[in-house]
Write a structure and sequence with these properties.
alpha/beta, Rossmann fold, 9 domains, eight-stranded mixed sheet, seven-stranded parallel sheet, 51 strands, helicase, hydrolase, ATP-binding, helicase activity, WH2_Lhr
Length: 1627
Amino acid sequence: MAKNADATHVLERFTPATRAWFEGAFAAPTPAQIGAWDAISTQRHALVVAPTGSGKTLSAFLWALDSFARTATDIMDSALPGLQEPLPAASKTTGSGGTRVLYISPLKALGVDVERNLRAPLVGIKATAAHLGLAVPQVSVGVRSGDTPANERRKLVTHPPDILITTPESLYLMLTSKARESLTQVHTVILDEVHAVAGTKRGAHLALSLERLDDLLATPAQRIGLSATVEPREEVARFLGGTAPVSIVAPPITKTWDLSVRVPVEDMTDLPAAAAAHDLGPGSGLAPQASIWPHVEEQIVDLIEANRSTIVFANSRRLAERLTGRLNEIHETRVAAASTEPVLGPNDIDSMGAEPSAGTPVARVQPGTGMPAAMMAQAGMSATSLPADQPGAVIPLARAHHGSVSKETRATIEDDLKTGVLRAVVATSSLELGIDMGLVDLVIQVESPPSVASGLQRVGRAGHQVGETSTGTFFPKHRADLLATALTVSRMREGKIEKLHIPANPLDVLAQQTLAACALEDLGVEAWFETVRRSAPYASLPRAAFTATLEMLAGKYPSDEFAQLRPRIVWDRDTGVLTGRPGAQRLAVISGGTIPDRGLFGVYLIGSEESSGAKGGRRVGELDEEMVYESRVGDVFALGATSWKIEDITHDRVLVSPAFGQPGKLPFWKGDSQGRPVELGAALGAFTASLVQSGQSAARKELASIGLDDFAAGNLLNYLSAQAEATSVVPSDKTLVVERFVDELGDWRVILHSPFGLPVHAPWALAVGARLHERYGLDGSSMAADDGIVLRVPAMDDEPPGAELFAFEPEEIEDLITAQVGNSALFAARFRECAARALLLPRTSPGKRTPLWQQRQRSAQLLDVARKYPDFPIILETVRECLNDVYDLPSLKSLLGQVASRGIAVREVQTRLPSPFAQSLLFGYVAQFLYEGDSPLAERRAAALSLDPALLNELLGRTELRELLDAGVIARTQDELQRVAENRKLTGLEGTADLLRLLGPLEQHEVAARLNPEADSPTDLLTAAGTYLEALVRSNRALAVRLGGRHVYAAIEDAPRLRDGLGVPLPHGVPLAFIEPVADPVGDLVSRYARTHGPFTAHDVAVALGLGVAVTTSVLERLVADTRVMVGAFRPAEMLDQAPALGISATEYCDAAVLRMIRSRSLAALRAEVEPVDQDTFARFLPSWQGIGAGLRGLDGVMAVVEQLAGVPVPGSALESHILPARVRDYQPWMLDELMSAGEVLISGAGALAGNDGWVALHTFENAPLSLPLPDTSTFSALASKLLGVLGSSGAYFVPQLAQLSARLPDPDGSPGGHDTAEPSSALVLEALWELFWASAASPDTLGPLRQLLSGGKNAHRAPAQAPRARTARLGRMAMLRAGRQDSGVELSGRRPAPESASGRWAALPAPLADPTIRAHAAAEFLLERYGVITRGSVAAESVPGGFGQLYRVLGRLEEAGHTRRGYFVERLGAAQFSTSATIDRLRSLVRQDDGGHLPMALGLAATDPANPYGAALSWPEAAGGHRPGRKAGALVVLVDGALALYVERGGKTVLGFNSLSASTDVESAPADPALLDAIATELVAVLRRGSIGKLGIEKINGQPIIDSPLGSALRHAGFYSTPSGLRFRA
């Protein structure tokens, strides 16, 4: 009953006509409609999430339609108006002067579908209104998309419809033209299928268009988002509303699904040779020509013929075309077999779904094509239709529907399916979204759907009505696909869809929208920045990135090198105004949008220009450019179930004629695959493991419950069993398998089996390829797929690489992939698309294709220019897109971390033949590299990028490693590199040859020093070295030359380097092969010197090679520029003291790899030197480090405390009662007031507590932007928002002033303010100010207001009592005048006294810096200053954004720069601790020897005091009985020599004793030390008095009565007194 009452209540909000129509047309509203109307009717943004067929579209539209009924004025007499005349067109307006409802659809076909479905409610409401004698709304509807003719678009501008149905791209075009004037009356925006755009750059583009639209309106439009599949809902709601709140309507509607997975054969590995095999992939058996496709096709035809209406979904356009041809062929064969007479269809419609024109033969499908089906299919061809006069022609069973079929044909196919003319449609994602295809009985999915969400959308096309069951049948193509299909169907039943991620700050889209926004009118920079930041994708846009994008558009980069870099806007930096240059609007309109231009060729029917009336003739589809390049005039291809013959190929189109009955080759289109999301991959791994671990019967039962038939279940279980037999372990989410085997060419194939998906595997494969090249000099071909990584490693004598190739440290993987991605084809392709979006590769004219090869060429030219400027926004955006949108680096790092911690096991296995899992992967490997040599040159040779160093490096300053690197480590490393270390020496003749090759020219004694003696050689090493060297010279493997007056030996390969680089004359007889010049002889010699030495100077290498210092310096600078050599200060002071003083340059160099080795070894040596201290020592250290007991005094002492505690939240009631007095010996409240009023110290709130208390934080003014949190302004009340606007625009104000100013401002909802508006009371203003204060948005200029607030309520700690303020009595005539009681009759509005808690002025707090890198670095510095030693617990206690993982990277870089040290400093806190050398020395100085000769030292603190390590860096110890302690406001702790001794809960009553104090509550334990008890009791009383705690009662300790305990006696001695219930303290 409650549900019906809700429905009735909601329906009562509609006008009578709308309500009557709805109640007559429907039994009751659905839960989704009830929730949607409840939210929409209150003018809130709303996201409606409900299954397909739950009435979402009507829920969004009906309230908007009702708004027209509410404003209608015309009364019609017609009984059924609207039935005698057509639906109002766009030219018939209501006089509103503009569009009021905007419907945005991601698909043009969906928009047309919605326009058609609007007819029923529009006509119905009109008829009902007329019947009731009410005003009849006259509502016009218009559609604008890329398919709308120009004359219709002009009509939409001159006579705007009330409801406009459009696409994101068309909305952008309208906003960038005069058509935007027609949108100024919009009050509702409906965004359908919001999930289709939210996670893409198209969505970011639309989000900015919506914000631009809001800027046109007097009041922002209400936004309504619709989606059937979306997760997480909060993220999509954020996309929908931007900074505005959004109501999420997601009622628990149960959708009924009938899902099944079918496999038509008993054993998918034992397939008979079959004709018409469509796929030679891993689904095929081992027998030639064996395929599962004929069996699948026969069953699909059976299902289609058994139902009235069916949609078959395929994952590619090529498969859709191929499958369509095969289904029609099977169907016509069956029809021909059933009847010898021709069977003609009832309608004269051709195969493309269009009525035939005069003189054009009508296409019919027929059986006799002259070619066996097997031959056509194996050759990639399709059998298609014949003319109608051919005997035996039949109506096609199915037609193909995808994006490359013309829009006219698609519309005809859709209508034919709805009307029953067509039994089936074979579609791609073109029919996936919410298009109403009528009463579809069945959906068939061939192959596993791309995602769970996609599967739900596709199967949802069947049973597309409220309460109906959606029936779907899945046909996997091979066993690996069967496993993925089973999981997908399982998760579809559970509704577990993949999470959506909104792209963060795409700069290419920002550049395009910026140019469009200022193309028609001047644009304020600050206003535009605010507009951009309102949208969800740009909510965290850094100002630096915004500025860089403007600078690019303003012509910062040289246009003489690339013309399209010329200025597009004028940026007046004095006025902060952007102005579009001439041509800006044309550029933005012609080249706008985010969908990449693939350079597709349009396909047109030759000779149809006149008959069709269309410009250029009748369009029948489009083809991929590379497919066209491989085609010739006269070729026949299939498109849309019809064969077409190529008559001509021009520069931008293919002209064709019908080729009925001729077999045509299937076209191909290249598309990007996003891959399996990591969460779905983890689920697949867990699903696999579950099946493997279950018994056969249990597994079959589980698979049957999912929907697998017997054959499917049997094949899947056999597949897993075969894999287990081949590799002994099946890959899962907890176990990865590295498989090796030798292929047919004798090379090694190394395969990583992993379920985690392509976004994780693709960057991993990139890193593995780089490692393979680095370690072995091999360019191993690597391929990543959803199920793993495949490597081909050439045959080698040594053990082939295995699992070690895939092991990376999580910290290094991001930098490695960032360095590698710039050289990938992915980067070049994405750079081209990003540059096109940023309007740097514009189209020359609308509607004219730009060849793909030309786009690639221009993109390569732009990249050559852009790579010189590391801060070029589009390079940065391309890197961001590759790393964040294409790759899933965070998941990869997490995965590698789990591998390193053994949370995920890696198993290695060597097999004789590829395992079943490997067979599936190998097919994809072959397919990827089949045409790799034909890939575009520009994308294969993407130049290495010199990316701008991270902002963190700038903050850290120049790298000075002199204090970090260990002299002993440098010396040891140098010995190893020079082969003089005992474990690095070589042996014999070959060892001598290796020495010359590795180290360069050496003297005989230098060679001897690097050789090990041979076991049977009696000669000394010097003689042996001479023998070896002479033997090498005689065999032309070495040279004997003079270098710098020394007689040396060199490897023969160095001959051209010595000759051309050093001018060394070569002896006679050097083979010609070894005297060919090399490209960079001096560079090679200097680079080798760097690789074989530790840190050195230019003078060192000059002496070694006999060159001038200027020459070596020049070469070294070149190597530095290539990042092969690093420059800095590396050698410690003691090594410099040992070096000669003369000729030593201050600048040192070191090979990059050598420096990494020395640095890592030095850090390891530093960590090994530090022995960890116990936790009690750290607990003694932390209060000392924070100045407790240090004797700080006066204002300087307070300032020192503020600097150390900047930004850390503490209870406001504890600030002046515990925190500051514990540190500043003579603290008085005026000290903090003086610092605050002088502007040196600020205070902010961090959330309210019970009573009037709350968390507060102090900040120094200079560091406040770094220590202040980012406030959340979205939840402020109207008055608080107005006050924040007043405070943010000017200085500080008293409360009465704010009351007056706020009354003059308009409300956030648009309500006007002014002089006549009543002022809010001081109490209301003060309440709003405290709201701003607790949100860290505003603060008073002294602590007075906070003290007054705390003194007036119940707080965690008692605030010091404030004396009441006395003021002189105001008597006499002026008092009466102020009261308005004099005879004049004039009532004066004098100053109203404000509450005492309103004393002082209030101001807005400085805006916090939003850059996450700067904030993370600042957080690390604050924590080091506050705690001395940073641990995971201390970071968690302060709730640092991003947590310890975010901070770890910054701290690691600080360590690399020598500013911090990482180590195991405190026991049992993990190895990831950071500190400085001086701090560690101080920490270790507090270590005490256990001699028992010192008196116990007690320290009392507030539990929330940052100096209390327990509950933060240290965990709370166990206590006997009672409750668990916590860092709670109002609680107190007493530490004795660092150990926690006593915990006093807020208000006392019960306390917890620890260690010996805990044992003392046990009567059988030895009594505690009386000195210890006295120290604890004395300190507790001191803390109570210092904190102005008037009274405290304690009843129990660890659950036992306090009065009889040893501690009770000590407390009575210290100042407590006994009561019947326990002990009480009173100040």
